[in-house]
Amino acid sequence: MYFHGDRNKNNIAITFDDGPSEETLNVLAVLKKYNIKATFFVVGKMIKNRESIIQAIKKDGHEFGNHTFSHKRLWFKSKKFIEEDIQRCDNELKKVGVVTNLVRFPGLKYGLNTIKICKLLNKKIIAIDLITLNQFAMDWFNPWLKKIGLIKNEIKIDDVVKTTIKNTKNGSILVFHDYLQEIGPHKELSSILEIILPELKKKGFNFVTVSELLN
Fold this sequence. Notes:
With 215 residues, the chain is α/β, with parallel strands linked by helices. 39% of the residues lie in helices and 14% in strands. It has one domain: Alpha-Beta Barrel (TIM Barrel), CATH 3.20.20. It has helices spanning 22-33, 51-59, 79-95, 112-120, 141-147, 158-167, 189-202, 210-214, and strands spanning 11-17, 39-42, 63-66, 102-103, 124-125, 173-177, 179-180, 184-185, 206-208. The strands form 3 sheets. Strands 1, 2, 3, 6 and 9 form a 5-stranded parallel sheet that branches. A two-stranded parallel sheet has the order 4-5. Strand 1, helix 1 and strand 2 form a beta-alpha-beta unit. Helix 1 packs parallel to helix 7 and helix 6 runs parallel beside helix 7 (189-202). The radius of gyration is 16 Å and the shape is globular.
């Protein structure tokens, strides 16, 4: 399992989970503006009727990862469920011409069965840099608080921006969400990226895909 890349090199990888969604196209525009390649961990059930978005990701030269078909947490699931859920996502990706050996578990929840199945399927398990982000400053947290009624006004992005810029290190794997399960497209994400990406570039970080980071 990979939480980060080489700490002695200034490469970092930005990744996106839970999509594709309509917001993905806005994300692609921001990435193109700053000439950055990213890795998109796709949920298999999200692909139907969004094939054109997958093609847009491909056209721009970004990398793909498997984020399971169902987006269900895997820590108490059987080997059969885990294998089928990962393979179903692979099959949906293959329909749109994508093959990947990268996988990330929904919610980063996993157990021994998950590790065994990924080894069987020859998958590289990609986590995130736990040093870089904490739950309270992750991009999904405030939208979730708004969904349950604890935030009434406009969603603020300051904590996400400040925490990411301050704590990103050499080799960091950063995670954001172009879609928020049970909420919808992440409408604040493009604004977050418009601040974070140029600031991290100013600090001397070089953005690469996950595979490039690990190699």
